[in-house]
Write a structure and sequence with these properties.
The complex is a heterodimer. By secondary structure, chain A is α+β, with helices and mostly antiparallel strands. Chain A contains five helices and 16 strands. In chain A, the strands form four sheets. In chain A, strands 1, 2, 9, 10, 11, 13, 14 and 15 form an eight-stranded antiparallel beta sheet that branches. In chain A, β9 and β10 form a beta hairpin. In chain B, β5 and β6 form a beta hairpin. Classes of the chains: A alpha+beta, B alpha+beta. At the A-B interface, β3, α2, α3, β4 and α4 of A face α2, α3, β3, β5 and β6 of B.
Chain lengths: 338, 197
């Protein structure tokens, strides 16, 4: 009896547990958004709701030439913080419905006072039924000083764009100094490859106590970078002003350029260094077959910038580019025979 | 006539913002169920014309401070900003009213809130209590402290109705910074957290 009695009891308990574990239809409540000043505000493309972007896209064009006289050119884009701009806003109907007499916008004291000052868009009643055409409104980013913002807003009335009509030409108000900075940051200066002569066939070794002609192959010698947004451009022009050579057991040298590529019969060079000791006592570095010294060439670049708003060149911070090479240095042994 | 000039000047001083604090039940006592009192707006100081509460919209301005001069204009701008904020929270849509009192960056933030709630089919209702205080005007800049109190706010989605706590609304204070705008008016440029109310 006891065993019989226990069987059904156990079964019943199991069923009860299963029922208790059955998922219910309960779901977590939705989580509401609210003002959150800890999150950075988003930037990006304008939305259909008329929220304008705080960044524009600058086009960056780079033109330059290498030591071999080969021109190069490339174009890229980069975001640039806007200052003030025309952004797409409300449709004619949305704006009218909000600001019309008796509209929601006039229900409060402050909104009514705003309308009473004549600050509503001119002719907004004419677009009361247009739910496709859109107002383009002057807007300024946070970092724009109050005086500049006010000047822009008061001198750029909202513009209505009917369906099918092109948006007003965008005249970005971007600080040319910002564009110049972006141009400078995108200034690509390929460092090239160090070559030298004498360069013994096989080892590439030069020799002590003789001028070793040095040049940098495929180095950039001049570059021009233009960053632009519609209505504003800034251009950075840079050139290699000098190149410093340094190496252990050699006096430092400053050359006026990236050196002169060696050709047979050449007796002098704009850039030469003299090694005073052999590298024979140096270790064989990784990737090398012979003991070497490290030759360092540091190019010094001077740059200026101008803009569509001011053609006067203004100096930018000097930049340097460094390239190294491992140079075997040997001694010439002379055998005197009688 | 400008917005500022349209507003009568009040010659009194203001100070701090703070939300009405809830009474704390002494430990050991059994709470009794009572109807939650419906706060009423604080009286507007005589002589000042301040943006009023809006029962239709469901927004109540509390602890209305005593203000003078440009503080009145700043208060009204922020009050209008709060009304548009609450309108957005109720409709999940921004309105053209935000354009006259909020910077593009703040409108972007508000659009994010509206989109988040709309994506969840969440709509808010009830009464939004807010207080505006610590109004300081220095030259072309003004700051205020705002408290958002959602205690009487409810949320609804297709699955049901929720309290403000259930949908994660927190009573938070923030400091707003304002700058000059067209028409001799003010615009809210940015904000920063200022803790709990």
């Amino acid at each position: 009896m006891l065993r019989v009695g226990r069987g059904p009891l156990v079964v019943s308990t199991s069923i009860a547990l299963l029922v208790g574990a059955t998922p219910t239809a309960w779901a977590a409540p939705p989580q509401s958004g609210q003002k959150d000043f800890e999150k950075p505000t988003a930037t990006g493309a304008a939305s259909q709701d008329g929220i304008a972007a705080e960044s524009a896209t600058a086009t960056i064009e780079t033109d330059g030439a290498t030591t071999a006289g080969v021109p190069f050119r490339h174009v890229t884009e980069a975001p640039v913080p806007r200052r003030c701009w025309y952004g797409p806003g409300w449709t004619g109907q949305q704006y009218y419905e909000f600001w019309k007499d008796g509209g929601v916008g006039r229900s409060g004291m402050t909104g009514d006072a705003y309308a009473a000052q004549g600050l509503l868009y001119d002719g907004f009643q004419e677009h009361a039924l247009d739910n496709e055409g859109r107002w383009y409104e002057p807007q300024c980013a946070l970092h724009v000083p109050g005086d500049e913002r006010l000047a822009y807003l008061t001198s750029h009335p909202a513009v209505y764009v009917a369906p099918g009509e092109p948006a007003p030409a965008v005249q970005e108000s971007v600080d040319p100094r910002v564009l110049a900075q972006i141009a400078a940051e995108h200034m690509q200066l390929p460092v090239g490859t160090i070559r030298w002569n004498p360069s013994v066939q096989g080892s590439g070794a030069t020799v002590v106590n003789l001028d070793t002609f040095v040049w940098v192959e495929d180095a950039t010698t001049s570059v021009q970078v233009t960053a632009s947004v519609p209505g504003v451009w800034s251009r950075v022009e840079a050139r290699m002003a000098s190149m410093a050579l340094s190496a252990p057991n050699a006096r430092d040298v400053t050359c006026p350029d990236a050196g002169t590529p060696y050709v047979a019969g050449m007796t002098g060079s704009s850039c030469a260094i003299v090694f005073e000791r052999s590298s024979a006592n140096q270790p064989v570095k990784s990737g090398q077959q012979y003991p070497t010294v490290t030759l360092t060439a540091t190019a010094r670049w001077e740059a200026t910038w101008t803009s569509s708003l001011d053609p006067t060149p203004q100096a930018l911070e000097v930049q340097t580019r460094t390239v190294t090479a491992e140079v075997p240095v040997g001694e010439v042994q002379t055998i005197v025979t009688r | 006539m400008t917005l500022r000039r349209a507003l009568p000047i009040l010659t009194v001083l203001l100070l701090s913002a703070g939300c009405a604090s809830e009474a704390v039940e002494p430990p050991g006592l059994e709470a009794t169920v009572a109807a939650e009192p419906t706060p009423t707006p604080s009286p507007t100081p005589a002589g000042a014309v301040l943006e009023p509460s809006d029962p239709d919209l469901g927004i109540v301005f509390e602890d209305v401070p005593q203000l003078e001069g440009e503080q009145v204009d700043v208060y009204n701008t922020v009050a209008y900003f709060q009304k548009e904020y609450w309108r957005m929270m109720r409709t999940n849509e921004l309105s053209p009213g935000f354009d006259i009192v909020a910077s593009p960056e703040l409108r972007t933030m508000m659009q994010g809130v509206a989109t988040q709630n709309a994506d969840q089919q969440l709509t808010l209702g009830g009464v939004f209590h807010t207080s505006i205080g610590a109004v300081v005007v220095e030259g072309g800049t003004a700051t205020v402290t705002v408290c958002d109190d959602y205690r009487e706010v409810t949320g609804t989605d297709p699955a049901g109705t929720y309290t403000s706590q259930e949908i994660g609304l927190e009573n938070l204070a923030s400091q707003l910074t304002l700058g000059p705008s067209v028409g001799d008016a003010w615009i809210v440029l940015t904000g920063s957290p200022a803790g709990a109310c």
